[in-house]
Write a structure and sequence with these properties.
Elements: E1 10-11, H1 21-24, H2 32-52, E2 61-62, H3 63-75, H4 79-92, H5 98-103, H6 105-128, H7 136-151, H8 157-160, H9 163-174, H10 181-195, H11 202-212
Antiparallel strand pairs: 1-2
Helix pairs in contact: 2-3, 2-4, 3-4, 4-7, 6-7, 6-9, 7-9, 7-10, 9-10
């Protein structure tokens, strides 16, 4: 489960609880992908600090702030950048408190599903042209992110009759039959994550079991 909002602390690059600690060690690595992620992370950090104002420069940045900054970046980027942002998002999302994920569920869901549609459109176009899709990793990250966000919602009938939650659930369930084994496994893991704590809600249970029976 997510960290409790009341116990969330701010993070610094030296903080052992910083979810980006391992990545930061590779800031000057010969690995191009890790260098690129560090550049994006540094840019997000600067954006958060600018938004806060100069008086808080010495204060560490919380997981919630990183999450919000990454979600904003996800909305306005091209597919390559979206893939990088999603990789960073999956480093911080498991440490993000549940409360903001509930409070901002609708816009979070809309952004994640829009990214999913963008990758799906690109993959469909590549298949039509005789090529193969190359977006397996970001699609897995999206499925995992949707699963975590859904798991954090209240286990109530109201949650699982709301359009946003059902659309997110359908996104995950759709990938249970994906041609790529890693994507299927990500979808399976997300279904189990969602059911953990939510299986007592009848509409959710019936929807999942009708497709997996």
């Amino acid at each position: 489960m997510m960290d409790d909002e009341d116990t969330e602390k701010t993070l610094s690059p030296e903080d052992p609880g910083d979810p980006f600690t391992e990545l930061r060690r590779h800031a000057n690595s010969s690995h191009a992908g890790k260098r690129r992620l560090n550049i994006i992370l540094a840019a997000i950090t600067e954006i958060v600090r600018e938004h806060r104002g100069p008086s808080s420069e010495s204060t560490g940045i919380s997981c919630t702030e990183y999450f919000a900054g990454l979600m904003t970046s996800l909305e306005g980027s091209d597919l390559d950048s979206k893939a990088d942002v999603l990789a960073l998002l999956m480093m911080v999302l498991p440490h993000t408190p549940a409360a903001p994920l509930r409070a901002k569920f609708k816009p979070i869901a809309a952004s994640l599903l829009a990214a999913g549609q963008a990758f799906e459109a690109q993959e469909t176009g590549a298949e039509d042209e005789g090529g193969g899709g190359s977006w397996s990793a970001p699609v897995r990250h999206l499925i995992e992110a949707v699963g975590i966000v859904l798991q954090c919602q209240s286990a109530t009938l109201a949650t699982w009759t709301a359009p946003a939650a059902l659309q997110c659930l359908n996104f995950v369930l759709h990938h249970l039959e994906d041609r790529r084994a890693k994507v299927r496994r990500a979808a399976q893991a997300s279904v189990l994550r969602i059911l953990d704590g939510h299986a007592s809600v009848t509409p959710l249970r019936e929807r999942v079991f009708s497709l997996t029976a």
